[in-house]
Specification:
Helix content: 25-40%
Distance between the termini: 52 Å
Order of helices and strands: HEEHEHHEEEEEHH
Oligomer: single chain
Strand content: 25-35%
Shape: globular
Structural class: alpha+beta
Number of helices: 6
Number of strands: 8
């Protein structure tokens, strides 16, 4: 009986130590992912919506410079269907703030970030200086509210999308998005 009790205690101790180590590893990964990004000033003029937040990840940290612009649009989403199609992403995702000359490169796809769902779509941007950039437009719904994000940079579209969605899913951004959408 003592032998089984000893085995049980060792197994529980091993499980607890493994769990603590896994927690610290995930926490360290989360901190390092968030640490790659620094907040920059919102670079766009005022419009009908409040200014959002802008972030930059330098080339050394993200494999190419990436900027992400995020802002809520309260009461701007269809309460029943959420973000229904690619036309809606084209219309609401604030790509026109970066460049008036943007063109989708393929149909969008359904995405989830934290407890919000919506669509993302890949675009080519022709910048005012003539350079070409890639952009990802993201529109997420939460009840009757909308959260839009645009990521842009000189990376391949699939990598840009992966980096942007990873950043938006970070704990810090999730807390901010929830608070900006009324905390509900």
């Amino acid at each position: 009986m003592r032998r089984w009790l000893t085995i049980l205690i060792v197994a529980l101790a091993f499980g607890a130590v493994s769990g603590i180590a896994a927690y610290h590893k995930v926490s360290a990964q989360e901190r390092s992912a968030a640490a790659r990004w620094r907040e920059i000033a919102w670079p766009y003029p005022r419009d009908a919506w409040p200014a959002g937040r802008a972030f930059r990840c330098d080339a050394e940290s993200c494999g190419g410079a990436v900027e992400v612009y995020v802002r809520p649009k309260i009461g701007f989403c269809n309460c029943d269907t959420g973000v229904a199609d690619d036309d809606e992403v084209d219309r609401v995702a604030d790509l026109d703030l970066i460049s008036e000359r943007f063109a989708p490169t393929e149909p969008g796809r359904v995405v989830r970030v934290a407890d919000m769902s919506g669509r993302s779509r890949k675009y080519d941007l022709k910048m005012s200086d003539g350079s070409q950039h890639t952009a990802i437009g993201i529109a997420l719904s939460h009840r009757c509210d909308l959260l839009v994000a645009v990521a842009q940079g000189e990376r391949a579209a699939s990598e840009l999308q992966r980096v942007a969605l990873e950043f938006l899913a970070s704990d810090e951004m999730h807390r901010w998005m929830t608070a900006s959408l009324g905390g509900h």
